[in-house]
Amino acid sequence: MANIKNLQMWNTICADARISISKSLFGLRTTATYKPTNSVIETRTFEYSPSDGERLRNLLEKPYEKLVDAMGDFRPKATVNGNYMAEVCCSRDSTFLAVQLFQFTRMSYEPVTDVILFEGPEASSVLKLFPNR
User: Distance (Å, rounded) from C-alpha 19 to C-alpha 95?
Assistant: First the structure.
């Protein structure tokens, strides 16, 4: 599990009014909570091959209604040292999902999508793109 403070989308998550940030253990541990359901947010990063990353990018750029239809049974396979990386923040109850996709260029991962937020049943549907916790 990635540390939420190390994610590039950290500032966007902190600025969202639906998210509560708390620090404990002398400020060494940071916990984000989705306020509407009081569910803790867990973070993950996944790396993907160029083909899976590009297909995921195309999906994430679609409006939600078209995204679910276009997803079909596509499940990108995580790889080591991939050309694309997804930062994923999901509440434990699967009612909140934040995703941002990056591509490796110029010796670092550069964002290719904005932070995309999903709530409720939408979050559960889109979460199928990413491996179980």
Answer: 12
Are 113 and 101 contacting, i.e. CB atoms less than 8 angstroms apart? yes
Kindly state the greatest CA–CA separation across the chain.
Answer: 46
24, two tokens: 């404990």
pLDDT per residue over 15-68, tens digit each? 999 999 998 877 678 899 999 999 999 999 999 999 999 999 999 999 988 998
Measured from the Cβ of residue 132, the count of other Cβ atoms closer than 10 Å reads 5
Hey, what amino acid is at 130? F
How many Å apart are CA 82 and CA 33, to the nearest integer?
A: 29
Return the amino acid letter for 97.
Answer: L
Hey, what amino acid is at 62?
Answer: K
